[in-house]
């Protein structure tokens, strides 16, 4: 165990001050289900932990206003079972309850979920003697060391958004649903507060896959805000995984539809399990606008979503699987539209 200091500030402003005072090596900690895990693997090595879980009011869920507002420390399980979310936004409820296990969802927060790190096995099994006992190069963990996944065991790797430095999949389900609904996060930092669209919270790996988020040092997510939309009622989060009880996505699609009869007037589609960041399938959305939702148009949209996909050695199946996941999700959401 590496030594670290531990602080429990009483407000978000005090947390930011504590983070800035601690300097390099500071980390916020919320549910701890991701960060403690990575500390045990010796991948994250924080010198200062700023525990934000006791900040009052930062776990509130507000669904009656003009927007849905989830404070960052709301447990995933609480948001997944909120009555308004369940009734009007199945895309959100399903993205949460199909993630992890009930015990984890009780501990994990909706803010922490957005910032979990990749499950790429070379990222996780490389930090000097883990279960595999080898040290694999990983540009995300150790910039400049190389990427063992490229040309390696790449079944789980991304087919969209990858670079010659990194093919690691963005792991979260919740951000995929949020990106489809044009949600944003509110953050507080040393320079004050600002809003960041979910789509802009994540970076493509490019040549610096170690830089995953656009947060500035010390910026803390305080809330997640989702614009209300009637399309929420006609939505789903469809997740395909190796093990149905709980597992990360091999492919997932978050879909919300505006429809006029059987015709799609507007589709919102997010992709998970297949890309290096929560992915918006804009080509598929454009293909569907003004068209009737039939099995043929749904599958055409699925294929459009993966038109730019590139496979490695073992993950080519994700392209057809992903296309069919999108098509299935569209069919499920459209059926809800009629009910
Ligand atoms: C066995 C297992 C299976 C899982 N399966 C899934 C799955 O299928 N789908 C899925 O989506 N997830 C899955 N997860 C991941 C799980 O959902 C995340 O671990 C969890 O959501 C992280 O939330 P947390 O509050 O525990 O974050 P923490 O572990 O406390 O923090 C995670 C990161 O976010 C930072 N952070 C936390 N809160 C804030 C904040 N408010 N502002 C700024 N930074 C912050 C921390 O510094 C840390 O870097 C799984 C996890 C496990 C262990």
From TrEMBL:
InterPro entries: CO_DH_flav_C, CO_DH_flav_C_dom_sf, Diverse_Substr_Oxidored, FAD-bd_PCMH, FAD-bd_PCMH-like_sf, FAD-bd_PCMH_sub1, FAD-bd_PCMH_sub2, Mopterin_DH_FAD-bd
FAD-binding PCMH-type domain residues: 1-231
Organism: Sphingomonas aurantiaca
Record's keyword terms, sorted: FAD, Flavoprotein
A Pfam family annotated for this UniProt entry: CO_deh_flav_C
Record SUPFAM superfamilies: CO dehydrogenase flavoprotein C-terminal domain-like, FAD-binding/transporter-associated domain-like
PROSITE patterns in the cross-refs: FAD_PCMH
Name assigned to this protein: Xanthine dehydrogenase YagS FAD-binding subunit
Keyword Disulfide bond: no
